[in-house]
Write a structure and sequence with these properties.
The protein is mainly alpha-helical and 235 residues long. The protein is built from eight helices and five strands, in the order H-E-E-E-H-H-H-H-H-E-H-E-H.
């Protein structure tokens, strides 16, 4: 949840940041009093829930024609409730499965093993199991942070994975940030076609190259400021 955390910090403390870069992320606003998803029933009971992304091949196929979603479900929120339930209860949860499913390129066995290494058994998984459910604690929390972002005039860059079928990967989410954050005006925003939700896995070198250029261009005008990047990695 890099963007949900990082953009909240930036919106509440804009003076801490000289530049911001974000990929496949957003600061989600949920009105107070709303409950986005039903709570998980019997969360301490483990079962074979079934992997929400099981239909996604290791080598992804294009999910978009431009900004039009041609494969991957209906509305942008479809499936998140299933993801909450799977993460909380599934007996076969593997971090590598999740990353593999929503990257464009297949992961090597070594990379998959590295993602699973912090979670050798279920007792190590409390954080990753609970995290998706925390969206139900967000109503009413981010309005002030978003107001701060809409006044952020320092350089703000979006680099998106163009094959992310979730809400965060949509053209609408990216364009909202570009349109409503003043510092986004005139920046070289882009969508990388061969990149899924975890775009740093798919296009890490290309993103790094673009960020170096972004920092070089803007550091000439921002000498003395610490430069901090935010790239959204995880759900």
């Amino acid at each position: 949840w890099g963007s949900i955390m990082g953009l909240r910090v930036a919106g509440l403390n804009p003076d801490w940041f000289a530049t911001i870069s974000v990929g496949n992320g957003d600061l989600i606003i949920i009105p107070e009093g709303n409950q986005p998803y039903p709570p998980v029933e019997n969360p301490n009971e483990h079962e074979d829930v079934g992997f929400p992304f099981a239909a996604f091949p290791d080598q992804q196929v294009p999910f978009y024609d431009g900004c039009e979603l041609i494969f991957g479900g209906g509305g942008q929120q479809d499936g998140f409730g299933d993801w909450i339930n799977y993460a909380m209860k599934d007996t076969n949860f593997h971090a590598s499965e999740v990353v593999e499913a929503i990257t464009w390129f297949p992961l090597s066995e070594d990379v998959e093993a590295a993602y699973d290494a912090p979670f050798p058994s279920r007792e190590y998984m409390a954080g990753v199991r609970v995290f998706p459910s925390l969206i139900n604690q967000m109503p009413g929390l981010n309005e002030d942070a978003w107001a701060g972002l809409t006044l952020f005039e320092k350089p703000f860059l979006t680099i998106w994975g163009g094959n992310d079928v979730g809400m965060l990967g949509s053209c609408e989410t990216q364009q909202k940030l570009i349109a409503e954050i003043p510092g986004a005006e005139g920046q070289p925003h882009d969508r990388l076609s061969e990149a899924g939700h975890f775009l740093q896995n798919d296009q890490g070198e290309e993103i790094a190259r673009r960020l170096v250029e972004f920092y070089k261009k803007n550091s000439k005008q921002k000498v003395g400021f610490e430069i901090i990047q935010i790239v959204s990695p995880n759900e």
